[in-house]
Design a protein that fits this description.
heterodimer; A: 331 residues; alpha/beta; Rossmann fold; five-stranded parallel sheet; B: 418 residues; 3 domains; 18 helices; 15 strands; 41% helix; globular; NifE-like (chain B); Nase/OxRdtase_comp1 (chain B)
Chain lengths: 331, 418
């Protein structure tokens, strides 16, 4: 049945995606929830939260706030919290409860800007979509902050811990200063599908060319291989292998999709794909393996934080890549 | 603005608890030290794992993905992954309530897969706001599947209400219990979702007093064994979170209950046992344990500075008051304050009026300066505020109780301070 997860568990939701983009920017991030969404986002989807101080808050929404639409209380709470520090901006992050009562985030931001004298943005996440949707919305909401200070660094979009393991050098737009140069880069590199929309926007507005992360193939591979990850990293792995099909539970972009690539809609589709695909090798998060106990080929772990969180994380991007290369080719 | 705190003396003297201690009155600061508040399941038991205390049960969480995300990791780490299923909602479900019509079919598919005896249906904030009638869905699904269906809720929106989620789930766990012929030798222990340390003196003392059948839900491996809890003479409530469930069992099944607190001072433990004995009409002969506790108490040197948090198997104020009585200096406590804490805070204030009581979830904690120079911290959160100081986390799932709990805590304090 669509929507039923018997073997798999929920992936990082859009709320986590939005927060992953905003996390290091020095803003005041207010998740409009009762507390649970904030706990899930910070505690399970944001590894930086354990090592870096950041201003993530739960709105502490209660039943009567939701029933009576007491948005004024939220603004009062924000005003009080703002006496403790001075953020670059205020970001309101949506969750399921405000989506039920149709909270008017745009109006709250307009009032907030006037009342607090701060740039206010909102990300109308619902907790019902996957993380990359929240990332896209966050990138979109941050566009007004883009400046065009020239830089020699390459812009890297869609490079959060939910997408790829390890820290990356260069301009990842995970610091406030990066956004002052977003329009001034000479080249943009897209590391996950959530970064594509912004890369295209920057090409249109500033003429900055972009490409996706690409790999080089040095192997002859005859096995039938399926790679399951976020689309851009899966494409990169396919480049390195020189062959393979790509599947993803997350958004796939038509520009990079090849004939046999498939966007998965749920675990039933995943089980069917493996059953009918006749693959020799599957590379994917260890969690996906739970749903295909009958698969008799080789399963190579290719973990993604947005799927299994910290459970299978490598220490660095290099260690991560070395691990799947070793499993595939014994390199 | 500095991190907000109130001294024990001011809290003891004040007529009203400052709003800063009320989580619904301000934004809630999110730091690793507050994870247990924002995501109760992160440390120990949240609603999902707690409800699965019902033996031979599985849970179907009907919710947006964001409500179940922590279970992706926790259920694997805490070995209940095979008992969790998810019916994920989308926006169309929200508008049309289509998800509710899928539940029966989902339960059938789960039944085909693992044949559970009990299926717990759990809904969250969105269905609370939609006023979903989960009881009738359970009834209909039970009729169609022949399984036992248990409604359960995880309404974070009601955290400071009459039935916060963790209070409600205690009631859920006992909702299947039926009254059996009363066995005067049987008693149920209510309080936590994990068992009490089997080495606790509570067991031999109750047994010696004639209460030979001591049961805890967490130890019941089968539904039949769980149902035997229905023969208890009375329920003994060891943590206030379970008091509502105790009251419901009294209302529904006529099972009487008694509430006793978990305390750490040997004199107080002795007092609690004697009060219990008097209330039940039994004799609790704890002289030997009491003497053991007093001997251990004499070994605690005092003098050192201890910061205490709320993420531990103790009431932080009770523990602070006891340790202050013991000659320790308590510069800081991290805890919310509710009216139930005030008598203990008054006790603490007499000995340590300058103790600063911070609430970890206050937005002002973004400016917290760790400058109390403790020699030791107790509680996982206190350890996170002072990461370079030796910490007795004291939050294992095996619940300490009685003299044995105190003796083990004292040993840990000595060990970590050494």
């Amino acid at each position: 049945m669509k929507g039923l997860f018997r073997y798999l568990s929920p992936f990082a939701p859009d709320i986590s995606g939005a927060c992953s983009v905003l996390f290091g920017l020095g803003g005041m991030i207010v998740i409009c929830d009762a507390g649970g969404c904030t706990g899930n986002t910070c505690g399970f989807d944001e590894p930086r939260w354990y090592t870096q101080k950041s201003a993530v808050f739960s709105a502490g929404l209660r039943d009567l706030d939701a029933i009576l639409g007491r948005d004024d209380r939220l603004l009062d709470k924000i005003e009080k919290a703002l006496t403790s520090f001075q953020p670059h901006f205020l970001a309101l992050i949506g969750t399921p409860a405000p989506s039920v009562i149709a909270t008017d985030y745009a109006a709250l931001c307009r009032i907030g800007e006037k009342r607090f004298g701060l740039p206010c943005i909102y990300i109308d996440t619902t907790g019902m979509e996957t993380y990359e949707i929240g990332q896209q919305k966050a990138y979109r909401a941050l566009r007004p902050m883009i400046q065009a200070a020239p830089t020699d660094q390459i812009g890297q979009w869609g490079a959060t811990p939910l997408d790829l393991p390890g820290q990356r050098d260069g301009l990842c737009f995970d610091q406030w200063e990066d956004w002052t140069m977003a329009g001034g880069t000479k080249q943009n590199l897209v590391l996950s599908p959530s970064g594509l929309e912004t890369a295209r926007y920057l090409k249109e507005r500033f003429g900055i060319p972009y490409d996706r992360l690409r790999g080089t193939c040095r192997h002859q591979e005859d096995r039938r291989i399926l790679i399951v990850h976020q689309q851009i990293y899966a494409d990169y792995v396919r480049d390195c292998i020189g062959t393979g099909d790509v599947a993803s539970f997350f958004t796939m972009d038509a520009e990079y999709k090849q004939t046999n690539d498939i966007q998965l809609d749920g675990e039933t589709e995943w089980i069917q794909l493996v059953k009918n695909g006749d693959y020799d090798v599957i590379m994917g998060d260890p969690m996906f393996q739970q749903a295909i106990p009958d698969f008799s080929g080789t399963y190579i772990p290719l973990p993604q934080f947005a799927v299994s969180g910290q459970m299978h994380q490598a220490d660095s991007a290099e260690a991560y890549e070395a691990s799947w290369r070793k499993a595939l080719w014994n390199e | 603005m500095n991190a907000f705190y109130t001294t024990a003396a001011d809290l003891a003297a004040g007529k009203k608890i400052p709003a800063e201690y009320d989580p619904s009155a301000h934004l809630i600061y999110s730091s690793p030290a507050t994870l247990a508040y924002n995501s109760p399941g992160a440390i120990g038991f949240g609603v999902k794992r707690a409800a699965l205390t019902i033996p031979e049960s599985v849970m179907l969480l009907i919710a947006p993905a964001s409500c179940g995300r922590n279970s992706t990791i926790l259920s694997a780490e805490e070995h209940y992954r095979d008992r969790m299923f998810y019916l994920l909602m989308n926006e169309t479900d929200l508008v049309t309530s289509r998800h509710l019509r899928k539940i029966t079919q989902a339960v059938k598919e789960i039944d085909e897969l693992c044949h559970p005896k009990v299926v717990i249906l759990c809904i969250t904030c969105v269905d609370a706001l939609l006023a979903t009638d989960l009881e009738s869905i359970c009834e209909k699904t039970a009729q169609e599947t022949g399984l036992i269906l248990v409604p359960s809720t995880m309404y974070a929106l009601e955290r400071e209400g009459r039935k916060p989620p963790m209070v409600q789930v205690h009631d859920t766990v006992f909702s299947l219990l039926k009254r059996k012929p009363v066995d005067p030798h049987a008693v149920n222990l209510l309080g936590w979702f994990s068992p009490i340390d089997p080495e606790s003196d509570l067991f031999p003392l109750l047994q010696k007093a004639g209460l030979t059948k001591i049961r805890q839900a967490a130890e019941m491996k089968t539904l039949d064994a769980y149902q035997k809890m229905g023969e208890a003479n009375f329920n003994l409530i060891l943590d206030p979170e379970a008091a509502y469930a105790g009251e419901q069992l009294y209302q529904r099944l006529g099972m009487p209950y008694l509430e006793i607190p978990r305390v750490y001072a040997p004199d107080r433990i002795h007092h609690v046992y004697q009060l219990l004995a008097k209330a039940v009409g039994i004799t609790i002969d704890d002289d030997e344990w009491y003497a053991k506790g007093k001997r251990k108490q004499a070994e605690l040197p005092g003098g050192r500075r201890i910061v205490i948090g709320e993420m531990c198997n103790a009431d932080p104020f009770e523990l602070a008051a006891f340790l202050a009585e013991q000659g320790y200096v308590i510069p800081e406590i991290f805890s919310n304050v509710i009216s139930r804490n005030l008598p203990t805070i008054k006790r603490l204030a007499k000995l340590s009026p300058e103790t600063k009581v911070y609430t970890g979830i206050s937005p002002s904690m973004i400016n917290f300066q760790a400058d109390a120079h403790p020699d030791l911290t107790i509680g996982k959160d206190a350890g996170q505020w002072y990461p370079n100081v030796p910490c007795v986390e004291w939050n294992s799932e095996k619940q300490p109780f009685g003299y044995d709990g105190f003796i083990k805590l004292a040993d840990r304090i000595k060990e970590v301070s050494a």
